[in-house]
Every structure is written in C-alpha cells, then in structure tokens.
Specification:
single chain; 213 residues; alpha/beta; Rossmann fold; 2 domains; 6-stranded parallel sheet; 6 strands; globular
Length: 213
C-alpha cells in the first residue's frame, strides 16, 4: 500500500518534473528567439500588405497609425473607396497634429455606377498619396483599399508600385484591400491575409458604430 507520504512525494516529483521540462523548453525557445533577433539587424521602411476577405484590414492599419503617432511620427492616410461619411477612426485621428487624412472616394463602385468618375477620383487620390510618398517627414503612409483601384484598372499597377518603391528610405507604407495581386504580394515586405470565417452582416445585422463604422 502506498503511504500518504509516498503519494505526496510522487506528486511533488511529478510537479518538479513538469516544471523542469517546461523550463528546458523555454530555454531552448529563448535561444532560438534570441538568435533570430540578433540576425534581424537592419532598419528600413517597410511595405505592409493587409488583404483577404475577412473583417479588420483597415482597423489593423489604423492601429498602426496609433502606434506610429505614439512614437511621435507623422502619419498620412488616403482612403480610396470610402465616401464622405465619417468613420470613427477619422473622427478620432483627423485633428491630431501629426495626422493628415484624405477621403478621396465616393463610395463603392456599385454605388457610384460611373467608371469615368471613379477613375478621376482614383487619380486625384493617388496624387495626394504621391505628395506623401515623396515627403520624408511622413513616417507612415496608409493607402486604404488601394487594391480595388489596381484590380479595377483605375490606376496603373506598375506606376503605383514604382511610386511606392521610390519613397524615402525609412518611410513605412501600409496597403489594405481584398484580392491583392500576386505582384503586390511579391514586393511587400510583410503580407497578412485575414480570413473570413463568419460575419454578422450575413445574419442580417447592420454595420455597428464602434465596431464596423
């Protein structure tokens, strides 16, 4: 028969064994992570692409805007599709001394139903973007929903990518939108694809302030 003392010792040894195994795993992981951090010794402006059919691409980009502003950086935003209705992010950020915010669209293409006008608005928006992409005082430039303009042929992809790649060396750019092209994925330094698993809208729930707007 196992005594209470033996049982307690077995439990203690088991706990110590688990703790020891955990410590050893974390030591190995720390060695790998520290080595990766040591190898990453370059600084440069990044091109980040947020794509996919899931919700949250623009929200993620504006989260980076908050982070950049927190570091005292100047941030520029061009929204290419959304129209004049204020989003919560624009209301919050637009008066910040280090923020420049342009809304250059008139709504989604199925709302405007005018390709020529959409192209004109896209070109106007891109000129505003280029003003930022050539200004080294901007540490972060967000090109919200740019992928649609490239996919619809409203802007020339080669010219857009050339303008982005010619930006100041330490300027970061974030591009958002669904269905990013292979060439855009290739030139980006970081690509995140947000998957659509479930959305309240398909259950008949309208866009909600503070979550969708």
């Amino acid at each position: 028969m196992i005594s209470r003392h033996d049982s307690a010792m077995t439990s203690a040894n088991s706990f110590l064994s688990k703790s020891d195994r955990h410590r050893r795993r974390m030591q190995k992981k720390k060695t790998v992570v520290d080595a990766s951090i040591k190898r990453a010794d370059k600084d440069q402006g990044l091109l980040l692409l947020l794509t996919g059919n899931g919700k949250g691409k623009s929200s993620s980009a504006f989260g980076m805007a908050a982070r950049a502003l927190g570091h005292g950086m100047r941030v520029g935003v061009v929204q290419f599709i959304k129209g004049c209705n204020d989003t919560g992010e624009e209301v919050f950020f637009r008066d910040h001394k280090n923020m420049t915010w342009h809304v250059t669209g008139e709504g989604f293409t199925w709302e405007t139903q005018n390709r020529a006008r959409d192209i004109g608005m896209a070109e106007r928006g891109w000129q505003l973007a280029c003003d930022m992409l050539t200004d080294e005082s901007y540490g972060l430039v967000i090109l919200d929903e740019l992928t649609y303009l490239l996919n619809y042929g409203y802007l020339d992809t080669d010219k857009v990518l050339a303008d982005i790649q010619a930006r100041p060396a330490m300027q970061h750019v974030v591009v958002t939108g669904r269905a990013a092209s292979d060439v855009l994925r290739e030139v980006a330094d970081t690509v995140s694809e947000i998957q659509d698993i479930k959305h309240a809208f398909r259950a008949g729930i309208r866009a909600q302030e503070g979550v969708d707007l």
